[in-house]
């Protein structure tokens, strides 16, 4: 049996009477690309925040990279990477300085940072841009760089929160190539997205509706079960029943 | 620790690469100091005066030459008669008239007593009072010279002595206030903006997900501004000493220590604002308006607090710059030691602890 890097059991987060995350249970296998779908307000972000060690669940259990979300937030943070829609790079720092900064924040040694950043700049083909300010790079490159920075410290799991928002289809495709490469090296990818074509790229997807997981399977299996042609239809059938309005 | 250094280095990059930040950081103090030191001074220099000397004797000549040699007056050579004087005042070409009556020399010689008339433009009472005072002092000096250094035989002469500031140098009073103002604006604005910027960019999220402790984020943000503010303070002192002829009378070490405390107060205010504000503009507005106005109005350096209504005086007690102003005045201008300012220091320290804990607490709750 494959190693489980995220294990959630009956995880619940309640704000007063409001169940943002309601009793969800799932596992994510090492090296898997795990899609986390749901309309706005379905509870994706809340669940992700718990798994990233940013907030505590109300009840249930969860471990990330083998560490408990209640007591070992620090170890969790050390073993995950994170990237959001906003790219999260400093525009008035150069490519190299950004890499050095994030490497430093994760406590990597100067030597390791130097070796890996040289290698990274070579693979990305950014040799000429290495000393340029990130603000001068085109959007697509920024995004690739942001992803590379998110996995620079070689985390076990990388969380991607709508990483391809506002990016053209070609760049999105290239971005997914990078995600596959990362997964091939054994990094588990936990990704939320609004693009249903991207959901097809995932090994397995969950669809959250009103704080609950309504479906969890490989895209192919989901399409069969809901007799749908594509993930868009699957999603629509499930999300239609949502009672919560988006936020 | 290494992570902190990496972070601090990044903050310095930000500061040095952002022209707007640099301008606020170093341009603002220079402009403020020069503005308050030179332009907005209560001191009157080179006032146009007309002297109507109807006595024309050795005494009046010597008095006139004294007035001419002072930097406060420019003596108009043209003699003006009654109605012309009135017209000149109305046109604003003269500020003051000194009249020696025909019998002035005689009276002084025989009775040791003589009167002069000083006419000043009362529509500007502050200037008028100042000019009349300057003239009185010059006349008084002359009388003392006549008496040969002995006791002046005439009536009761009040001897004026402006303690700590014998020349009545107006910038003296402003400098401590301007320093407080600069720290308030620079520290509060720049820290709050730089924290909010990270929130806007989304980098704050990344930092919170990283193993870097959230409190350390705030510390790393604050340290570069603390260092730069101290550099700034040095700059202000150099400007004040070099250009405005202000001597630092007290201990420099104490002055720097107190300033460090006040800078930390201002940084805490900035961090607190960054918790409330969601955009850089909001942060800037809150810190500029929220900090600048109370510092200008309720610190006591522009408008004396003693003359304000009691409720406002009470409010002024909550403004941190008020206490810092008192401390700087005492240490820098009067040369007093720590024993004279420990109460103010304690109040300031208490405020800092309260503000900082509030900022950290709010930052934590926002996280969860």
Automatic annotation (TrEMBL), chain A:
Which keywords describe this protein according to UniProt? ATP-binding, Nucleotide-binding
Q: Name one Pfam family in it.
A: ABC_tran
What SUPFAM superfamilies has UniProt attached to this entry?
A: P-loop containing nucleoside triphosphate hydrolases
Q: Which residues form the ABC transporter domain?
A: 6-235
A molecular function (GO) term? ATP hydrolysis activity
Q: By its UniProt entry, which SMART domains does this protein fall under?
A: AAA
Q: Which domain of life is it from?
A: Bacteria
Matching InterPro entries: AAA+_ATPase (IPR003593), ABC_transporter-like_ATP-bd (IPR003439), P-loop_NTPase (IPR027417)
Protein name per its UniProtKB record = ABC-2 type transport system ATP-binding protein
The source organism is Chitinophaga jiangningensis
UniProtKB/TrEMBL annotation, chain B:
Q: Does the keyword Glycoprotein apply?
A: no
List GO molecular-function terms, semicolon-separated: ABC-type transporter activity
Stored InterPro entries: ABC-2_transporter_component (IPR051449), ABC2_TM (IPR013525), ABC2_TM_bact-type (IPR047817)
Q: Which Gene3D superfamilies match?
A: abc type-2 transporter like domain (3.40.1710.10)
Its placement in the membrane is given as:
Multi-pass membrane protein
Alphabetical keyword list: Cell membrane, Membrane, Transmembrane, Transmembrane helix, Transport
Q: What is this protein called?
A: ABC-2 type transport system permease protein
The entry sums up its family as follows: Belongs to the ABC-2 integral membrane protein family.
The record's PANTHER family line, in alphabetical order, gives: MEMBRANE COMPONENT OF ABC TRANSPORTER YHHJ-RELATED, MULTIDRUG ABC TRANSPORTER PERMEASE YBHS-RELATED
**What compartments host this protein?**
Cell membrane
Occurrences of domain ABC transmembrane type-2 (ranges)? 128-366
Q: Which GO terms describe its cellular component?
A: plasma membrane
Instruction: Give TM segment ranges.
Output: 21-40, 174-196, 217-244, 250-273, 285-303, 346-363
Q: Name one Pfam family in it.
A: ABC2_membrane_3
């Amino acid at each position: 049996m494959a190693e489980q890097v995220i294990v959630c059991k009956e995880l619940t987060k309640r704000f007063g009477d409001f169940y943002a995350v309601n009793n969800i249970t799932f596992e994510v296998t090492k090296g898997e690309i795990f899609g986390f779908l749901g309309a706005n307000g379905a509870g994706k972000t809340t669940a992700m925040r718990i798994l990233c060690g940013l907030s505590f669940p109300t009840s249930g259990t969860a471990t990330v990279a083998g560490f408990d979300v209640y007591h070992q937030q620090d170890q969790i943070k050390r073993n995950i990477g994170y990237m959001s829609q906003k790219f999260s790079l400093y525009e008035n720092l150069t490519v190299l300085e950004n890499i050095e900064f994030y490497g430093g924040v994760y406590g990597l040694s100067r030597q390791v940072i130097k070796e890996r950043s040289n290698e990274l700049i070579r693979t990305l083909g950014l040799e000429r841009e290495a000393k340029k300010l990130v603000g001068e790079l085109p959007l697509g490159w920024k995004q690739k760089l942001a992803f590379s920075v998110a996995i620079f410290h070689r985390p076990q799991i990388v969380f991607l929160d709508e990483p391809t928002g506002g990016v053209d289809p070609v760049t999105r495709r290239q971005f997914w190539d990078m995600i596959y490469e990362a997964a091939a090296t054994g990094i588990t990818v936990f990704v939320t997205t609004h693009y249903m074509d991207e959901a097809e790229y995932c090994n397995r997807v969950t669809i959250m509706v009103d704080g609950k997981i309504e479906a969890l399977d490989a895209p192919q299996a989901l399409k069969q079960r809901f007799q749908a042609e594509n993930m868009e239809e699957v999603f629509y059938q499930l999300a239609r029943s949502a009672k919560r309005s988006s936020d | 620790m290494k992570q902190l250094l990496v972070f601090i280095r990044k903050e310095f990059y930000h500061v040095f690469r952002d022209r707007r930040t640099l301008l606020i950081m170093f341009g603002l103090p220079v402009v403020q100091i020069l503005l308050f030191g030179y332009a907005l001074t209560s001191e009157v220099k080179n006032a146009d005066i007309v002297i109507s000397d109807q006595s024309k004797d050795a005494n009046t000549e010597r008095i006139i030459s004294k007035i001419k040699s002072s930097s406060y007056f420019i003596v108009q050579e043209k003699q003006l008669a009654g109605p012309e004087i009135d017209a000149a005042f109305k046109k604003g070409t003269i500020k003051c008239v000194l009249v020696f009556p025909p019998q002035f020399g005689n009276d002084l010689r025989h009775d040791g007593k003589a009167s002069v008339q000083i006419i000043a433009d009362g529509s500007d009472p502050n200037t008028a009072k100042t000019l009349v005072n300057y003239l009185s002092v010059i006349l008084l000096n002359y009388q003392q010279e006549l008496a040969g250094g002995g006791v002046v035989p005439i009536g009761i002469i009040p001897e004026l002595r402006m303690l700590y500031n014998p020349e009545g140098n107006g910038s003296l009073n402003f400098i401590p206030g301007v320093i407080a103002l600069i720290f308030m604006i620079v520290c509060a604005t720049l820290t709050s903006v730089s924290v909010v910027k990270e929130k806007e960019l989304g980098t704050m999220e990344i930092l919170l997900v990283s193993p870097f402790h959230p409190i350390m984020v705030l510390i790393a943000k604050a340290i570069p501004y603390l260092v730069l503010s101290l550099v700034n303070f040095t700059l202000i002192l150099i400007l004040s000493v070099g250009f405005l002829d202000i001597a630092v009378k007290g201990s420099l070490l104490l002055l720097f220590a107190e300033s460090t405390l006040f800078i930390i107060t201002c940084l805490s205010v900035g961090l607190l604002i960054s918790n409330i504000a969601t955009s850089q503009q909001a942060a800037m507005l809150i810190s500029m308006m929220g900090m600048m106005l109370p510092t200008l109005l309720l610190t006591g350096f522009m408008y004396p607090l003693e003359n304000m209504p009691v409720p406002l005086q009470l409010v002024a007690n909550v403004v941190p710059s008020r206490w810092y102003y008192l401390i700087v005045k005492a240490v820098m201008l009067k040369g007093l030691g720590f024993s004279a300012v420990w109460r103010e220091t304690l109040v300031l320290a208490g405020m800092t602890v309260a503000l900082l804990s509030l900022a950290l607490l709010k930052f934590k709750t926002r996280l969860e």
